[in-house]
C-alpha cells in the first residue's frame, strides 16, 4: 500500500511514535518524542523556527515519522549537533527507501512549480554510516531530480563489548598491550587516593538530586565544557536526564573516593548498548586519572549487565581509542531543488 505523508500534531502522534520505535533498524533516544519535545521546549527561540513533524501512513497505520524544522527557506532535521549525536527517519526496518521517497515527493512534487513547505534546501545531518536511509538517498534523489551532496560530519567511536561470561578480563584482552598495561596501572594506583567506590543512579529523584554534582564537575573538568554550558544548555541537560531516566533510558554513574564524588558519567541506554553522553571530574584528582577511570568502570558495568556495545558518541578524543573504540562515521546530506 502506498505511503501518504502529511503534517501531524506531535503531541497526538506521540503514542504511535513510541510504538513504532522498537521496530526500527536503529532507534536511539535521539529519535524519541521525549528528545524532540525537550529540545524544542528549550531551544525553539520564540518562533524563529517552525516545527514540522510529518507522519507517513499506510491507511491509518503509522509507518514512519519525519521530524523537521524550517528556518527561512531551509529545512533540516529538528534538533542540533551540539546536543544530538544521531538522527534518522523512525520507521519499521525495511521501510526506509519508501519513506524517504514518499517524504521527498510530498515536500517537492514535480507537479508544483513552487516547493511545498517553502524550502530550497534540506539538510539531513547525523546520519550513521549504517543508515538504510543514507544508502537509499542517491537513488531517490536522482529519481526526483534533486541535487545531493554527502559529506563526513563526524565520528562516533564505539566498542563491541565481550559477553558477560568473558567479562572484564575478556575486555582487557581485546586491548592492545600498551593500552591494557596503562589501564591496569591506573586502576592499581587509584586506591592511593582513598577508598574507591562506584555509584549508579537511574531513578528520576536520584538523578535529579545528583545533577548538581555532575554539572559542577562537567564545567570544572575542561574550559571548553564550561564555555559550552550556557544556562540554556544546562537547562536542557537537566531536563533530558530526568525525563529519560523516568523512561528507564538514562543513568548517572560516579566514581567516589572516601565517599566523595570525584568523576561522573551521564549515559543513555539503547537496545543492548550504552551511549556515553557527557562526563566530568574534579580537577583536584586529575593525577589519579579519575575521568578516564570513571568511564572504564561505567564500561565494566555495561559488560556485567550484558550490553554488547559501548558508544562514546561524537568526537575523536584520544581517551576513547585508549579504551579500545573504533570509529563509526556520521554523515551530513544536503538536498537541493534543481
Task: Report a brief summary of the structure.
The chain is built from eleven helices and twelve strands. It has 338 residues and is α+β, with helices and mostly antiparallel strands.
Number of domain modules: 2
Measured distance between first and last alpha carbons: 29 Å
What's the CATH H-level homologous superfamily of the largest domain?
Gcn5-related N-acetyltransferase (GNAT)
On the 0-100 scale, what is the average pLDDT?
94
Nearest-angstrom radius of gyration?
21 Å
Strand line-up in the sheet with most strands: 1-2-3-4-5-12-6-11-10-9-8-7
CATH class category of the largest domain: Alpha Beta
According to DSSP, the number of beta strands is: 12
Describe what this molecule looks like in 3D.
With 338 residues, the protein is an alpha+beta fold. It folds into 2 domains: 4-154 and 330-337, Aminopeptidase, CATH 3.40.630; 162-307, Gcn5-related N-acetyltransferase (GNAT) (Aminopeptidase). It contains 11 helices and 12 strands. Strands 1-2-3-4-5-12-6-11-10-9-8-7 form a 12-stranded mixed β-sheet, with helices on both faces. Strand 3 (61-71) and strand 4 (74-77) form a beta hairpin. Helix 2 runs antiparallel to helix 9 (231-245), helix 3 crosses helix 4 and helix 7 (204-221) packs antiparallel against helix 9. The two termini are 29 Å apart. Mean pLDDT is 94; it is low at 110-116.
List the helices and strands and how they pair.
Elements (H helix, E strand, L loop, with lengths): L3 E4 L2 H11 L12 H11 L6 E9 L2 E11 L2 E4 L18 H12 L13 E8 L3 H13 L1 E15 L6 H8 L2 H13 L6 E6 L2 H18 L1 H6 L2 H15 L4 E8 L2 E11 L2 E9 L8 H15 L4 E3 L6 H5 L3 E12 L1
Parallel strand pairs: 4-5, 10-11
Antiparallel strand pairs: 1-2, 2-3, 3-4, 5-12, 6-11, 6-12, 7-8, 8-9, 9-10
Helix pairs in contact: 2-9, 3-4, 7-9
Amino acid at each position: 500500500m502506498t505511503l501518504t505523508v502529511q503534517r501531524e500534531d506531535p503531541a497526538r502522534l506521540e503514542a504511535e511514535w513510541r510504538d513504532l520505535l522498537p521496530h526500527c533498524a536503529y532507534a536511539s533516544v535521539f529519535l524519541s518524542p521525549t528528545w524532540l519535545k525537550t529540545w524544542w521546549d528549550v531551544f525553539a527561540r520564540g518562533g524563529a523556527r517552525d516545527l514540522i513533524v510529518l507522519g507517513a501512513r499506510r491507511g491509518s497505520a503509522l509507518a514512519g515519522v519525519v521530524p523537521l524544522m524550517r528556518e527561512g527557506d531551509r529545512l533540516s532535521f529538528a534538533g542540533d549537533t551540539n546536543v544530538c549525536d544521531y538522527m534518522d527517519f523512525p520507521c519499521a526496518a525495511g521501510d526506509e527507501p519508501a519513506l524517504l521517497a514518499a517524504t521527498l515527493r510530498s515536500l517537492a512534487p514535480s507537479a508544483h512549480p513552487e516547493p511545498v513547505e517553502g524550502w530550497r534546501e534540506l539538510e539531513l545531518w547525523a546520519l550513521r554510516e549504517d543508515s538504510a536511509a543514507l544508502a537509499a538517498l542517491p537513488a531517490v534523489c536522482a529519481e526526483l531530480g534533486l541535487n545531493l551532496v554527502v559529506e563526513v560530519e563526524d565520528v562516533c567511536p564505539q566498542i563491541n563489548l565481550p559477553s558477560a561470561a568473558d567479562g572484564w578480563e575478556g575486555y582487557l584482552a581485546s586491548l592492545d598491550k600498551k593500552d591494557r598495561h596503562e589501564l591496569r596501572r591506573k586502576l592499581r594506583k587509584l586506591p592511593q587516593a582513598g577508598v574507591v567506590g562506584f555509584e549508579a543512579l537511574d531513578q528520576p529523584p536520584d538523578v535529579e538530586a545528583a545533577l548538581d554534582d555532575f554539572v559542577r564537575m562537567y564545567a570544572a573538568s575542561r574550559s571548553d565544557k564550561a564555555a559550552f554550558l550556557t544556562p540554556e544548555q544546562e537547562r536542557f541537560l537537566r531536563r533530558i536526564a530526568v525525563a529519560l531516566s523516568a523512561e528507564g533510558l538514562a543513568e548517572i554513574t560516579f566514581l567516589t573516593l572516601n565517599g566523595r564524588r570525584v568523576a561522573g558519567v551521564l549515559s543513555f541506554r539503547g537496545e543492548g548498548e550504552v551511549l556515553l553522553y557527557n562526563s566530568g571530574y574534579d580537577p583536584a584528582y586529575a593525577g589519579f586519572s579519575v575521568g578516564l577511570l570513571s568511564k572504564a568502570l561505567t564500561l565494566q558495568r555495561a559488560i556485567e549487565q550484558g550490553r554488547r556495545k559501548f558508544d562514546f558518541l561524537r568526537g575523536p578524543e584520544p581517551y576513547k581509542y585508549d579504551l579500545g573504540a573504533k570509529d563509526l562515521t556520521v554523515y551530513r546530506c544536503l538536498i537541493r531543488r534543481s
